[in-house]
Amino acid sequence: MRYASITERLAGLGSGKWAIHIEARKKAAEGIPVIQLTIGEPDLPPDPTLLAECTRALHAGRTRYSNGRGEASVVSALVEKYRKRRDNITERNVLCFPGTQSALFVVLMGLLDAGDEVLVGDPYYATYEGLIASSGARLSPVKLKMENGFHLNARDLEAAITSRSRVLLMNTPHNPTGAVLTSDEISAIGEVCRRHDLWIVCDEVYEELAFGQNLSKTFASPFDNPALAERTVVVSSISKSHAAPGFRSGWAVGPSDFCDRLLPVSETMLFGMQPFIADMTAMALTQPIETSGIMRTNYERRARLIATRLKSISTLKPIMPEGGMFIVVDVGATGLTGYEFAARLLEEQHVAVMPGSSFGEAARDLIRVSLTVSDDMLAEAADRMIQIANMLAAEAA
Ligand SMILES: Cc1ncc(COP(=O)(O)O)c(C=O)c1O
Q1: Atom 7 (ligand 1): residue with closest C-alpha?
Q2: Which of 16, 39, 295, 320 shows the greatest Cβ crowding within 10 Å of its Cβ?
Q3: Is the CB of 128 within 6 Å of ligand 1?
Q4: Ligand 1: which atom is nearest the Cα of residue 39?
Q5: Among 205, 251, 326, 328, which is best to mutate for testing ligand 1, by the most ligand atoms less than 8 A from CB?
Q6: pTM here?
Q7: In the chain, what are the domain boundaries?
Q8: CATH class of 48-286
Q9: How far apart are CA 271 and CA 70, in angstroms?
Q10: Centroid of ligand 1 to alpha carbon of 224 (angstroms)
Q11: Is the shortest distance between the CB of 40 and ligand 1 below 6 Å?
């Protein structure tokens, strides 16, 4: 039978990136006690008040069809949230989706044609490649330099722009590196995008996990700059902020003309979202809920724990994140790539981490360690990494 070319463009982008994770799950199912530090799944449950609201809404009959933009309750909660950041936001600027992933898919479908180019800092979140390839566009990598803390640099961005560039897909706080861009960096990046008439799609799924006490000081976004309003689309969700990835509840906020044009694309594919999840999301966005504050403190402390522990070994170089739920470690000095190191760590020490190669060419020598297990377990995982590094040094001697 004949298939559409999208199936070829996406073939191989799925399972290859997750091979270590899949192998770890297999070992765990066989009863081998693997320390699993692969995916970014929050280790807290959602707040009980949110579960209660979801259950209440289910029993109250909030199980009927919705509409393409989103239920009134959640749309107005989003207007309230984003109006604090830019004052002229209305419901015409908001679209709801089942998670950031589907928001990104529809947003990019609305902005890209085959042959277009999307600028993306490399390393990048593992699904971006497939998202971009879906439309027939090409991912154009802009190297994020380790010596620059993996921060996207405006000059490097400008050097990668061609006549086919249409979109900058950026992510702050950044997965996998944990880099959090400053407002000065974002101004410079925004200026480049204005000069070259690029859309900016900003994935802010880790917004509430920027480390530090005061989010308004640590987190910055192109969305907050009125001069970039006509070209900026933010996507996010409650997956990380409220430890609720299984609810699949996210959104896009952008220019009203953009949202009007995108609405039929979204409706064609999704036909609205679930009202009982919308009610729970509205509560998550409007009530003070502690989950993200607890995670922020835990993940920062655990990142420091790994960074301190690995100081004792010169061939493993942890790079302290500024936000998010991961820490990356440069293993290049062991003589192995990130993939080889991760495979050996799983096989010999039963610790599963993501190989950097799942996040682009620039991350080849990295591993990404998820901070979503207890401090004790992370300390144990760090010690097992050191054992592998010591064994490699002994083999090389
Ligand atoms: C950078 C980034 N964007 C998007 C997602 C997907 O988020 P959601 O659960 O809202 O679809 C993730 C999940 O790990 C992520 O790390």
Answers
A1: 100
A2: 295
A3: no
A4: 14
A5: 205
A6: 0.96
A7: 5-45+291-396, 48-286
A8: alpha beta
A9: 10
A10: 21
A11: yes
E strands, the chain, are 35-37, 94-97, 117-122, 138-143, 165-171, 199-203, 232-237, 250-253, 317-319, 326-330, 351-355, 366-370
CA of 394 to the centre of ligand 1 (A): 39
Closest CA to 359 of 16, 78, 97: 16
The protein residue with its alpha carbon nearest to ligand 1, atom 13, reads 40
Q: What is the whole-number distance in angstroms between the Cα of residue 101 and the centre of ligand 1?
A: 6
Q: Is the CB of 370 under 6 A from ligand 1?
A: no
- Residue 239 CA, ligand 1 centroid: distance in Å: 7
Nearest-angstrom CA–CA distance, 79 and 241: 17
CATH code of the region 5-45+291-396: 3.90.1150.10
pLDDT tens sequence for the chain (397 residues)? 999 999 999 987 766 788 999 999 999 999 999 999 999 899 999 999 999 999 999 999 999 999 999 999 999 999 999 999 999 999 999 999 999 999 999 999 999 999 999 999 999 999 999 999 999 999 999 999 999 999 999 999 999 999 999 999 999 999 999 999 999 999 999 999 999 999 999 999 999 999 986 666 689 999 999 999 999 999 999 999 999 999 999 999 999 999 999 999 999 999 888 999 999 999 999 999 999 999 999 999 999 999 999 999 999 999 999 999 999 999 999 999 999 999 999 999 999 999 999 999 899 999 999 999 999 999 999 999 999 999 999 998 8
Query: In whole angstroms, what is the distance from residue 276 CA to residue 61 CA?
Result: 8
Alpha-carbon distance of 239 to 247, in angstroms, equals 7
**One-letter amino acid identity for 238?**
I
